[in-house]
Amino acid sequence: MKITRVEAIPFAIPYRKPLKFASGEVHTAEHVLVRVHTDDGIVGIAEAPPRPFTYGETQDGVIAVVRKIFAPQLIGLSLLQREAIHARLSRTVGNPVAKSAVDMAVWDALGRSLNLQVTELLGGFTDRMRVSHMLGFDEPAAMVAEAEKMRDRHGITTFKVKVGRRPVDLDIAVARALREALGDTIELYIDGNRGWTASESAVAMKRMADLNLLFAEELCPADDVLGRRWLVSQLDIPFIADESVPTPADVTREVLSGSATAISIKTARTGFTVSQRVHHLAEGLGLEIVMGNQIDGQLGSMCSVAFGAAYQLTARRAGELSNFLDMSDDLLTEPLDIRGGELTIRPGAGLGVDIDPDKLARYRQDH
Ligand code: MUC
Ligand code: MG
């Protein structure tokens, strides 16, 4: 079970429907496939979705740090030495997406070596999660039509609506149109990606008080320290910290200072090893968790559901697992299928999914 090689392969797959939100937009999934090889011929896989507008990482940067720093540090270690692997990755500052993909590929390789599912190794609470779909910026009628399509085709009844950095009347009109068109049976919450100020957020939340929102996420920047505490103290629904809590220390700081009352876990930025720490911390602090989406492809979405299904706390709320549906294609041999509003773990070892070599050859950018 010794690591012999770590590969970082850039690939690009266009979106059929680009996702737009307050902090950026994504037209093409320019991700990195990480493969961890062992001396037994096992190959673990994971994908890194760089988000320069959130964490500063780029596709080129992910490849450089994996090839030049992480690979030489990990070769020769056993897959069972996950804490040693974590300690070596942690010597490098930042680079959360690159570290996470390496970490998750190690877990996938371990599962394949032991013939066990990753979700079983992590916790094995259940084999599925309810799905929440993230709706990017558009006109109200188009966002309602998208939500209805997701409900009718996939049974999805939880929606996260992107708000912020465009006219607040438009954001409120979208949330209102969704509630009116889809009724009280859907769950609805909003994510501002830091696009409003604290006072704009407070006014908008008052105007949406009758919409029965489930959560409000990252409406204003955590760096507006007192403004954010002031906002969170007056809300009567949980305020989710997402990009402001990329590490367990950030969770502790933001929650204990009153800047957040719930958190998003994204395996794309905390892998499995650090996501476990964040989960256990949140449980100890009594926080709700939503499994978030870093605009992941199918492999990344499988990583999210493998983690989310492993614990009661993460499986309780719908996870954001469906934005791969907006991509024109993907790399897996068997596409993921969301049915009855749920995404289920695959029965195979590790993450239970495999890369289609023809698709990888078509979309890889390094030849
Ligand atoms: C989200 O929840 O914020 C947007 C940027 C990113 O990194 O993740 C998405 C979704
Ligand atoms: Mg968010």
Sum up the structure in keywords.
about 375 residues; alpha/beta; Enolase-like, domain 1; 2 domains; 12 strands; binds [(2S)-5-oxo-2,5-dihydrofuran-2-yl]acetic acid
Describe it for me?
The chain has 367 residues and is α/β, with parallel strands linked by helices. The protein folds into two domains: 114 residues, Enolase-like, domain 1; 225 residues, TIM Barrel, CATH 3.20.20. The protein has 15 helices and twelve strands. The two termini are 30 Å apart. Bound molecules: [(2S)-5-oxo-2,5-dihydrofuran-2-yl]acetic acid and magnesium ion. Magnesium ion (MG) binds next to loops.
Computed structural class: alpha/beta
Identify the CATH architecture of the largest domain: Alpha-Beta Barrel
Order of helices and strands: EEEHHHHHEHEHEHEHEHEHHEHHEEH
Biggest pleated sheet: 9 strands, mixed
